[in-house]
Amino acid sequence: MNKLYLALFLVACTPISVADTLYITLEKDNALAVVDGETGKLLKTVPLGQRPRGIALSKDQSLLYVAASDDDTIQILDINTLKVIGELPSGEDPELFKIHPNGRLLYVSNEDDNIVTVIDLEKKTALAEIAVGVEPEGIAITRDGKWVVNTSETTNMVHWIDPADQRIKENTLVDPRPRAAEFSVNNEWLFVTSEIAGSLSRLDVATKQITGKLHFKIPGVDKELIQPVGVLAHPNNKLLFVALGPANRVAVVDIQLMKVTKYLLVGQRVWNLAFSPDLKRLYTTNGVSNDISIIDVDDLKVTKSIRVGHYPWGIAVK
Amino acid sequence: MRLGHGVIALKGIIKRELWRFLRQRERFIAALVRPLVWLFVFAAGFRSTLGIAIIPPYETYILYEVYIAAGLIGMIQLFNGMQSSLSMVYDREMGSMKTLLISPLPRWFLLMGKLLAGTSVSILQAYVFLLIAWFYDIQAPLLGYVTLFPALVLAGLMLGALGMLLSSFIKQLENFAGVMNFVIFPMFFMSTALYPLWKIKESSELLHTLASYNPFSQAVELIRFALYGQFNSYAFVYTLAAFIVFMAVAVWGYNPSKGMMVKKGGGPR
Q1: Mean predicted confidence (pLDDT) in A161-183
Q2: Contact present, A309 and A277 (Cβ < 8 Å)
Q3: B256 compared with A11, residue with greater pLDDT
């Protein structure tokens, strides 16, 4: 009997890890890889439109939206059947997009047309087209839904869009080639990665001014290879994870000090990042090495890298 | 031989070797400095060299210093094995070996005792090295530090037996430099301690063949897998077989009527 109690006690003490499923767009395979987040096992691969890149789940997590860039559309997939059940009028060459916290609006950047298209997800129609700088790329939305920002790669600007009237209210000049943006969980700061400058800028949301900057430096790695792209804020409001592209590293940044606390070695050309729902794991898509890396968030250690298909690009986690 | 006698003798031999090791602080420090210099200086220059392929037992991309750590543990045990052989040559010259070999216990048992003593020292060194490496962010799974132990015992015994075998061939202490040049360095450099086999193959097929048959490579791979909680059966069988062969030849070499002692005229009479 004692043994039974001991066994039950041990089971009770074992940390429970919630199983999660990863949905990864494979840019070159024109497909979606479905991966078990805990084991890293590739469960299946489903065909998609041409050059799938940006990916996101609907607010109720019943639908998947995938930007099929070369088909000039955003495909809608049923999460259970993984079948394409519809499309959204995304405009030309959709790449990165974000869904507003209200779950009703989707903002997508159209790189070739220098616009951001706002899509009504219920009506599946384009609600507005916002003219922005040259080569719009990153999109970020505050958790309270008050601000949408877009970064334009060639104009080197952050455009502050008010979702109330879908107009740009302010612009902030940042370092060359701003790629991705992310708000802190308390909506106080905005973080922008600049690919050419190899830097991360911290902007104050209230003043729209830069309040901190960080240039990444990795011993033994050529400066040219350090190209910050994807950025993800930890809900603890202390850490930020930055994918450094061909430097094959993810930088862990202390957002208060704007200092790198650790560089984690992952696959080649690390591009985008996503957390598991329990925040135990961080997933990275590594384009050139055709794999994803799994990072233990508590230990800040890379535990596994698994091949998933050619050119993994975007990632959504359920 | 009664078990009690054997245990007393074994304890005596191991104690003597551990005492000798601990009292010679320079030796302890030197044994650690060597792999640490390789880790902090040599490996630092090649940090990202291996960041392009995932090889078992690693499940993700690793920095060079993580790869080389297992090889440096092997280096500790290799040098320790040779150091033991050096001390055996010294013991033989000083006459303390004679005292040991004329005891009523079987010769293989005494040599095995010497071997276990040397291996214990090398295991101690290896764990101290790993402790320092931990703070340099070379951290294996905790279970790996447990599963490493039996691998270190076997690898230590095999390399110690090799040292013992060599010591039976070395006439004088001065000849030890030859062992360094012709055994330790080739064994270390032509192995998987510094580069994985696929990398060696890229540069030379011959080197690749030599490295794959090098028993030191297999000892290093046994250590590498064990450190990550995995069992490399091929490396285990290879290392075990090498140990048996080296030990058999060493026992033969130390036999006063048949082995090298007769030829050299150095054995106990």
Answers
A1: 95
A2: no
A3: B256
Contact at CB, B51 and A248, closer than 8 angstroms: yes
pTM over 0.90: no
Residue B174: what pLDDT?
Answer: 67
B60 pairs with which residues across the strands? none
Nearest CA in chain B to A289: B52
Beta pairing partners, A251: A242, A263
| Segments making up each domain of chain B, as ranges | 3-264
| Other beta carbons less than 10 A from residue A200's beta carbon | 26
For residues A50 and B31, the model is more confident at A50
Distance from CA of B137 to the nearest CA of A (A): 10
Give A250's contacts in chain B (Cβ within 8 Å).
Answer: none
Residue of B51, B60, B63 with shortest CB distance to A303: B60
A43-46 own/partner pairs: CB under 8 Å, 24+ apart: A44/A82, A45/A309, A46/A77, A46/A82
DSSP characters for A107-152?
A: EEEETTTTEEEEEETTTTEEEEEEE-SSSEEEEEE-TTSS-EEEEE
Query: Which of B5-14, B98-107, B145-154 has the weakest average pLDDT?
Result: B98-107
Q: Is the ipTM of this complex over 0.90?
A: no
Is any Cβ of chain A less than 8 angstroms from the Cβ of B53?
no
Q: Minimal CA–CA distance to A172: which of A157, A189, A188?
A: A157
Any A CB within 8 A of B63 CB:
yes
Q: Please give the residue that has the higher pLDDT: either A16 or A62.
A: A62
pLDDT of residue B89: 72
Residues of A with CB under 8 A from a CB of B: 219-221, 248, 265-268, 289, 293-294, 301-305
Q: Does residue B139 belong to the interface with chain A, where contact is any CB pair within 8 Å?
A: yes
Q: How many CB pairs below 8 A link A and B?
A: 34
Reported as type and span, the H/E element at residue B151 is: helix B142-169
- The first and second tokens of residue B190, run together, are 């032509």
Q: Is B52 on the interface with A (CB under 8 A)?
A: yes
Question: Which amino acid belongs to residue B212?
Answer: S
CA B217/CA B219 separation, integer angstroms: 5
Best A226, A250, A265, A301 member to test B by mutation, with max B CBs in 10 Å, is A265
For strand A239-243 and strand A231-233, is the pairing parallel, antiparallel, or unpaired? antiparallel
Say yes or no to pLDDT of B120 above 60. Answer: yes
A293: closest chain B residue by CA: B60
For A45-114, give the DSSP string: EEE-SSSEEEEEE-TTSSEEEEEEGGGTEEEEEETTT--EEEEE---SSEEEEEE-TTSSEEEEEETTTT
Q: Distance from B40 to chain A by nearest Cα, in Å?
A: 13
What is the reported pLDDT for A11?
46
* Paired tokens of A295: 């990072």
